[in-house]
Amino acid sequence: IDGMTTNHRIALIPGDGIGAEVLPPAQQVLDVMARRYGFNLSYTSYGDWSCERYLREGAMMPADGIDQLRDKDAILLGAVGYPGVPDHVSLWGLLIPIRRGFRQYVNLRPIRVFEGIDSPVRRARPGEVDLVVVRENVEGEYSEAGGRLNAGFPDEMAIQETVFTRAGVTRVLDYAFMLASRRTGRLTSATKSNGIVHTMPFWDQLVAERAASFAQVAWDQEHIDALAAKLVLEPARFDVVVASNLFGDILSDLAAAVAGSIGIAPAANLNPEREFPSMFEPVHGSAPDIAGRGIANPLGAIWAAAMMLDHLGHPAAARDITDAIASVLAKTDTRTPDLGGTATTAEFTEKLIELL
Ligand code: ATP
Ligand code: MG
């Protein structure tokens, strides 16, 4: 609209450890893009939503936390996690309420082996590996259904139920097939219907049903064990990999490792209908071992910021950022220590912005 600048309201949740060190570089890159493409980003920072807050006050975020985020256009998250605080606290105290509260049922994790990065996998040649894991993000194996019985008795047991709903599986499959049709038209579904005899056959059935509506997509399915092996041996064979919550969690970490460093990989928690804000974050955690030293690799957060701009309707700006990531790795020796270099987070960010 003439004379009006698009404004995007961004919630920043730096979290713990290096989370707070990688968000400022991402913001710097975003601000360059806002100037170049003429949109406006207004940030609200939730600086103390973290495990440190949990240790002080017994909660990762305030009771009305979800309501505070509701009117935002997107959420950019650093990382949450702190030594001594169990992972399930940060997961159930912040990440899962946001994912479920805002129906972010797609977890999108792109993986690329960039020129200039050594993959630990010999056959993962730069440029050839360019895939996306689409992970179902709100149901499946990570359910609260189940319990512990007979504590202290010899027949003590734990039961954990997996919940797949037709609506919940279908919507993430639709997203994955749509994405595959816009990319190379190939989709692989992760299954385990030989061992998991109720839920996975239902998943497979729904994949076959949805596939009928996407005739242009060539699809297949692989058992999760074989698929894990193939992603290591022949990652270039894959384009879109769609998986349940647990399988997708495992595969996306595996694929990020194939790409050379966990410091590079981003994740988008998407509410495709845009009823609620989506959330963008690096895949890595708070990395307490290197926190406070200014050497964290900011690429995961910067790539996540690019995915955020794409979601907000600025695909050209998003491409500029991923092009700059590819350039800084292919054309310069500037690297953070996780990639074998000596640059600090700030030096590496400066180099990337120069190329941008
Ligand atoms: P959390 O408890 O928050 O998950 P973590 O100890 O599991 O934290 P991760 O962040 O998952 O740590 O990463 C594991 C290791 O990878 C870290 O110990 C760190 O050395 C390295 N690492 C992770 N992210 C980065 C990064 N952005 N830059 C450099 N090294 C990183
Ligand atoms: Mg971790």
Q: What are the salient characteristics of this protein?
A:
356 residues, alpha/beta, ten-stranded mixed sheet, 40% helix, binds adenosine-5'-triphosphate, binds magnesium ion
In words, what does this structure look like?
With 356 residues, the chain is α/β, with parallel strands linked by helices. It is built from 11 helices and 12 strands. It has helices at 19-37, 51-57, 65-69, 87-101, 166-182, 199-211, 224-233, 245-258, 299-311, 315-331, 345-355; strands spanning 7-15, 40-45, 74-79, 106-112, 130-136, 146-149, 157-160, 186-191, 218-223, 240-243, 266-270, 278-282. The strands form 2 sheets. It has a 10-stranded mixed sheet with strand order 2-1-3-12-11-4-5-10-8-9, sandwiched between helices. The protein has a two-stranded antiparallel ribbon with strand order 6-7. A hairpin with a 7-residue loop joins strand 11 and strand 12. The longest helix is centred in the first third of the chain and has 19 residues, at 19-37. It is globular, with a radius of gyration of 20 Å. The two termini are 27 Å apart. The mean pLDDT is 94. It binds adenosine-5'-triphosphate and magnesium ion.
